Amino acid sequence: MRDFTYVLADDVASAGSLVHNDAVARAVQTPDDVAYVAGGTTQYDLMRDGVWSPGTLVDISRLPLADIEVSDDLLVVGAAVTMADLARHPSVVDLDVLRDSLLLAASPQLRTMATVGGNVLQRTRCRYFRDPTVTQCNKRVPGSGCAAVEGTARTHAVLGVDAGCIAVHASDLAVALVALDARVRTHGPHGGRTISVTQLHVRADEDPARDNTLVAGELITHLEIPLPDARSGYLKVRDRASYEFALTSAAVVARVEDGVLAHVAIGLGGVGSVPWRATRAEEVLRGQRASLALFEEAAAAELADAFTVPGTAFKPELARRTLVRQLRDVTEVTA
Amino acid sequence: MTATTQAPTTAAPVIGAGVTRVDGPLKVTGAVPYADDLAPRDALVGVLVGATIASGEISLVDASDALAAPGVVAVLSHHDAPRVVRPDEASADERAPMPPFQDATVRFHGDYVAMVVAQTREEAVHAASLLRVSYDVAEPVVDLNDPRALRETDDPAGADSVRGDLERGVAAADVVIEADYVTGDNTNNPLGLFSACAEWDGDALHMWATTQWPFNTADCLAEAWGIPREDVRVECPYLGGGFGSGLRPWPYIHAAAMAARVVGQPVRVVLSRPQMFTGVGHRPETVQHVRLGARRDGTLTAVEHTATIPVATDDDNPENIVSGTRQGYAVEHLRADVDQVRLHISPPGSMRAPGEAQGNFALETALDELAVELGIDPVELRMRNEAVTNPDQDDLPWSSKALDQCLRRGAELIGWDDRDPAPRSMREGDQLIGYGMAAVSFFYFQQPCTVRVVVRRDGSAAVHCAAMDIGTGTYTIVTQVAAERLGLDLSEVEVVLGDSSLPASPPAGGSGLAMAISNATALAVSGVLGDLGLDGAPGRDVLARAVGDRDEVRAEATATPPDPAELGMSPSGAFGAKFAKVRVDADLGLVRVERLVSVIDCGQVLNERTARSQVVGGTVGGIGHALLEHTVTDLHAGPQTGRVTNAHLADYLVAVNADVPDLEVEFVGGPDRLNTVGVKGVGEVGLCGVAAAIGNAVFHATGRRIRRLPITPDLLL
Known about the structure:
The complex is a heterodimer of chains A (335) and B (717). Chain A is an alpha+beta fold. Chain A has helices at residues 22-29, 43-48, 83-87, 90-93, 96-103, 108-113, 116-120, 147-150, 173-179, 279-285, 292-303, 315-331; strands at 5-8, 34-37, 56-59, 68-70, 74-78, 183-188, 191-196, 219-226, 231-237, 248-257, 260-269, 276-277. Chain A has 12 helices and 12 strands. In chain A, the strands form 3 sheets. In chain A, strands 4-5-8-6-7 form a 5-stranded antiparallel sheet, with no helix packed on it. In chain A, helix 5 runs antiparallel to helix 9 (173-179). With 717 residues, chain B is α+β, with helices and mostly antiparallel strands. In chain B, strands 3-7-1-15-12-13-14 form a 7-stranded mixed sheet. In chain B, strands 9, 10, 11, 16, 17, 18 and 30 form a 7-stranded mixed sheet that branches. Chain B folds into 3 domains: 24-32 and 447-560, Aldehyde oxidase/xanthine dehydrogenase, molybdopterin binding domain (Aldehyde Oxidoreductase, domain 4, 2-Layer Sandwich), CATH 3.30.365.10; 38-138 and 188-278, Aldehyde oxidase/xanthine dehydrogenase, molybdopterin binding domain (Aldehyde Oxidoreductase, domain 4, 2-Layer Sandwich); 286-444 and 568-716, Aldehyde Oxidoreductase, domain 4. Chain B starts with 23 loop residues before the first helix and ends in an 8-residue tail after the last strand. In chain B, helix 10 packs parallel to helix 18 and helix 17 packs across helix 18. The chains are: A alpha+beta (335), B alpha+beta (717). At the A-B interface, helix 12 of A face helix 4 of B.
């Protein structure tokens, strides 16, 4: 393991200018070699596995980013709020899609450590990516190829991928966030900005080496989550009843008025190189009379162009069924 | 230093009573000495480096950068490591695993090519990343179905058997069913990472190593180094789980001894989790074929069960996939055959219920298919074919057998007769409900075991044996047997185990230790009482008076497996019946176990609490075997060929609490006639039959027959 510098950014007094404190200023000056860390539940694994060797870690867990503010229709969540704390917040307890995306993820121990800002930036679980002895990995070594495409790929993605990389984005929370039209607030070297979660990640078929659209030194400070005037739910399908990433999942936010889908937003998990916003399915559904046949049509449309390898051949079908089931359960349509 | 225990106070008789573990307080307070806890604290740290190819020759291990790294003391590789003899593991009927660094050949992905020894683990890990290993790569053969693989057909597992004339039996059948079954490779994955620390004193070797068999490990080390057996001592009073992976003297143990020899200081090696997938054995995958012939009334006329399993290129692993088939049912015409295929994979080894775990799935699934075909209740089908005598051992009567009681009681507990037997007939909302069952006839395994009993001047006693307690309760049951037969309180008996310098023991494996050590203990107690001129269970005061002014009186005794022919009976292993109730999501294919009933005949139950715990633990392993666990090796041609793709506990799925319902366990039957204590082992029977019972329940729920483990949602879409 390479030696690294650890800086605890705990300068609460100058929190207003947090990215200008000494530690982060250094981080910005040498961007390739510096990273923020909070819960560390992904990053320390990557370091121990020899996949990632930053020179400096800037620990942001003591910065004042652990508050949750609620207005009428917006939840503003500090990036350092843990998954466990967000799940038990009064505004989240009744927001099924968000609560279940948190509580069905990881284990209680991990949820107590992991922060929501880190969660949406977690790196893929692909075991070819996570084993440095594997030489072909376009995400780790751009241009080297993809061992997973030819290898064992049961847990890999089928949307937003091609033969260059089939790594899945494994966050449950981010799948719920795309269905909730959530945004991230960031603070970077050029000031602050707000990015839709649907625009935060980079598809593997666009650039496997790049996970997200943040620039060097840019820090997620908050999640902005609109509180929907709709019903919602998160269904996670996995071999094991707990403590496993999704084979497939569906986050559905929908409001039916007089039998018609007045609002519908869908995120799919376990299938995409990014948290997958199912816009094709939404187009089929929006403004239409809700029915099981329509749900089938929508799900089929979303998965129509799936890229599969032998190990993932089952995934489009399982994803279709997962989405249909969750649309049915959220809308309570029976026929 | 050795481990000692202090027991709670209870009144005799204690055999069969569910007394709490004598080492329970030590365990829950973190005070039990695991092997590594006893090792020298100032030992250097060795980190093993595995090959990144599956077959070939190492052309060079360039350690110059690694040796220059901070804290590094030495690098071992085949260039300069000490040469040792490969032990012939005679007591285990196989060659011991190859000691590492003896030649340039790479036999599998992860095969050790070097070890870095440094002051700290972090320094060793870093230096290991600086090693430059060059290979002449050869094309590996890693697929069980690869026609290029060397196939061993001459009964390599000692499993083959022919009775009668199979084709005659098939011809006599009204119904014949025939199918292939596949079980995936599994990895034992005890939570405790295996460790070994070696310290040399001149030519004497002292090791603290994770092992289920300290005595044999010491034998093998003495043979490897050509030193007197009495100059080798291996201690392992406790380990963090074994499940069979600690049975053999694996290469990492040799590596620690070599490194300590080279650097002249104690060296500790702790495997990483990925190394636990390639360095300490695994349950081999199987491809099996079963053909059953039966008359309309359900009488079996022919049973054919063949299996192909992998074995490493230069290793032995006589795994008997068909043991349960050979002795399970009364059938005149039988052919059982196991072939092995040599692959460039890490050496497979025993994993809880080796052979029977996989073979039972095929046989008991096939019987379920036959029951459906015949329209006979699956429980009834098994009863009609009960082997009243052992067809695999000259039709000798069993020393004990209560399988019919297991079947009846299990059916009663799960409400078997209340189900609708038609497939896909029971449903609650999206959930299809199914019931399934399987029977188990577990093999008998015994080796000699020697125990020393010491009665001290104060009338208290100690029991000494090299055997290991792998967490199953050996300390506790030995305490119980000795206490009851000496008339002592549990707290007046000290049990010392896990040290190769103590009297010879068999492995903690094969469901054989409880029988061996409890009988040896009983014999040694008889011996010491005879020496003291006592009988019965005299109690502390009488014992103290008999010892008189001597410091102590000791006696040793050896329990030896009897000759069945001489006895006129066939030694029985445990029997059992498993009944499962599952829910299967009709659309999503998710299988969740709702109930699992185990009814077990294990002879005399020595301790109801620890025996139940063994069945519960085995059943949890069975759920993993059925639905989750699968070690996946990269088969495609390329640089990753032969690499385990999920060597990580996040990706290799074991059952977690949410997968395990309340498990119902009952014991039936009585003491076995074979031995004085009447005990049969219960360590593995709990796992067997679970996969078939769940698979059969999945069929009942869905109408879909899955002949492959693990049964995952994608197979049910």
